[in-house]
Amino acid sequence: MADPVTTTPVLQLKNIRKSYGSGETESEILHGIDLRLERGEFAALIGPSGSGKSTLLNLIGLLDRPSGGQLFIDGQETGQLDDTGLTRLRGQRIGFVFQHHHLIPAFTALENVAMPLLVARGRPDAEMFAQAGRLLDQVGLAERKQNLANQLSGGQQQRVAIARALAMSPSLVLADEPTGNLDTHSADDVFALLREVNTRLNTTFLIVTHDQRLAARCDRIIEMVDGNIVADRRHQAAAN
Amino acid sequence: MKSWMPFEWIAAIRFLREGRMQSLLIIVGVGVGVAVIVFMSALLSGLQANLVKRTLSSQAHIVLLPPEEIARLQSPAGGIALRLQKQAQRLRSIDQWQQIQARLEGLPEIAAISPIASGPAFVVRGDANKAITLLGIDPVRYSGVIALPERMVAGQLRVGAGEAVIGIELAKDLGADIGDKIRVTTAGDATETFTVTGLFDLGNKGVNARNVYVSLRSAQSLLDLVGGVSSIDISLHDIDEAERLASKIAAETGLTADSWIKTNAQFVTALTSQRVSSNVIRFFIGLSVAFGIASVLVVSVIQRAREIGILRAMGASQGQMLRIFLLQGGIVGFFGSLLGSGLAWTFLMLWRLMARNPDGTPMFIIGVDPWLVAIAAGGASLVGILSALLPARRAARLDPVVAIRG
Question: Distance between CA B233 and CA B239 in Å, rounded?
């Protein structure tokens, strides 16, 4: 790993606050979060329900705006960006893997993986499908490229979703309970795949999970309680 | 995936194809609406054209008459007239009618001009005695105004010296046929005997019972209008121009110019109100089609909230989401209009088969104007896009965080 002090972090949060409502009914969910993720990190974000994990993930994913503080993606301050700017930055730098797979059922596996490229470029081209095909090969779904999304098993759908998250070669992949909906065997497969991508492409991962077993296999564990980061441990993952 | 197609088109088509049942139902809904509009428009314009044609088959588009004679108040020594009697209008000729005719021939709007000497008369044959309208015509010129040659049912349109053409009703009343003699007497006690050379049917019982066509010269001498004409009939290339042109001619010549629009004021009003009421119906059909499209798309936006959220998370802009749903509206409208035009065409063909006169000829001809189909397609696509505005805005403004979790 590169020296964390001299390189630009993939993600940097400075005193990030988020509150909902206003006046009397205002309630703060995040109370000033500071966080830094370096390139190639493989971090777990854990904490009980309602601790603010998902809210934080939405802010990092530029799906929502913080009420206060600064958020940098690859060194770029995001507070000044309008909706279009946020959308573009999100499309180019951030990949999402959701708990419920969230493929688009009207499209095939290959088309789903190519979708971020299609959205960005506006028109389909051979190159984007070639790349989507390579990604599907890498996640072990070479045989399923032409299947519609809902013709795949849960584990297969999540693999497609991971391939899709990697389509734009993002700096940061945000995974929200990526294995939450899978049986233990599929969950292990999917986790191993995330780990493999991390090692091979040096992509940064932030994985929200309830699963202590999976968290223990990450390089870094960030723990949240009641809108604060209460623990941030780095360790060499026990075993993959 | 077609490589020339933009992302928005691909997504719109896939979404429509995936919701096959919904899409099909709404396209059929749009189709029925378009079919009714196209069928109704074609039927109405066919019907109206037919009615106008029938009405004008025995009428000129514009009739020029001598100016009305007005009694002038003459008050020698400043006496006061207690009552001014309106002057009776005697039959008289149009002054300088040849010059007027020559001038009118220079107007490009005019298709044909026919000077006519006409007036009341009696026709006598045996015991039968009928009041008629005697019309002295130049057959060639007159045929340009009223399609008399096409309306001949027996004999021919020939009005040489001592020859007359009469209507089928009058022939029946008089018991006369081709070659029979009839005697025409006018109020001035002038009398001439004519041989019937032809029978016409102008589709109007009154006209068929009253009009007797003779040569211009015979009518002039019988009606004491030697060298003169009592009216000038005019036909136009564009019948809608009649009123405008009539006022123009009246102003230029000082004659009374009556257009068919003025003479048939009630008829024209009826046509106009028919058109207005059909426009109202069309508008409401269009409105219900729009609401149908909008409601289907609103449901689709709700159903696809999660997919919209994912696409937004992947970097799809609000504009892209907006266009995807606008396109769906437009595509539904377009295909609905194609289906509707096909249905309307089928209806019209059926109508042609079913709606026939007792003699088996089509009741009237309805053309399917290709422009009508093009306008329907364009209009329905536009209505589709407009009715998609609200759902599309809703899709574009969906909060991806909420959408993904939902």
Answer: 14
Q: Where are the domains of chain A?
A: 40-65+82-234
A93 touches A171 (CB < 8 A): yes
Check pLDDT > 70 for residue A137. yes
Min distance B302 CA to chain A CA atoms (Å): 15
CB contact under 8 A, B15 and A106: yes
Q: Which phi-psi region, left, alpha or beta, contains residue A181 (left: φ > 0; alpha: ψ -120 to 50)?
A: alpha
The answer to whether B20 faces chain A, any CB pair under 8 Å, is no
Read off the pLDDT of residues B39-97 as tens digits, 9 standing for 90 and up: 888 888 888 888 888 888 778 899 999 888 777 666 666 666 666 677 777 778 888 88
Q: Could A91 and B315 be called an inter-chain contact, meaning their C-beta atoms sit closer than 8 Å? A: yes
Smallest Cα distance from A236 to chain B, Å = 32
Q: Is B396 strand, coil or helix?
A: helix
A96:B313 CB<8 A: yes
Whether the CB of B17 is below 8 Å from some CB of chain A: the reply is yes
* Predicted ipTM beyond 0.85: no
Query: Closest Cα of chain A to B245: distance in Å?
Result: 58
Tell me the pLDDT tens digit for each residue of A74-132.
988 998 888 889 988 998 899 988 877 678 888 999 999 999 999 988 889 999 999 99
Q: Which residue of B has its CA nearest to A124?
A: B3
Structure tokens at B128: 């039968």
Predicted TM-score (pTM) of the model is 0.74
Residues from A contacting B (CB-CB < 8 Å) are: 58, 61, 63-64, 83-84, 87-88, 90-92, 96, 98, 102-107, 111, 115-116, 118-126, 129, 164, 168
| pLDDT value of position B314 | 84
Question: How far, in Å, CA of B66 to CA of A108, rounded?
Answer: 84
The C-alpha R_g of chain B, in whole angstroms, comes to: 33
Pick the CATH number of A40-65+82-234 from 1.10.10.60, 3.30.450.20, 2.40.128.110, 3.40.50.300: 3.40.50.300
Q: Do the Cβ atoms of A122 and B7 come within 8 Å?
A: yes
Phi, psi of A147 (to 5 degrees): -75, 140
Question: CA-CA distances (angstroms) from residue A173 to A66, A94, A150, A198?
Answer: 19, 6, 23, 10
DSSP-H helix ranges across A139-238: 154-165, 184-201, 212-215
More confident of the two residues A233 and B68 = A233
The amino acid present at B38, given as its one-letter code, is: V
Neighbours of A157 (CB within 10 A): 25
- Sheet of A76-77: strand order equals A27-37, A11-20, A68-73, A76-77
pLDDT number for residue B81: 61
**How far apart, in Å, are the Cα atoms of A58 and each of A68, A74, A206?**
15, 17, 12
Distance CA B79, CA B76 (A): 6
Any chain A CB within 8 A of the CB of B92? no
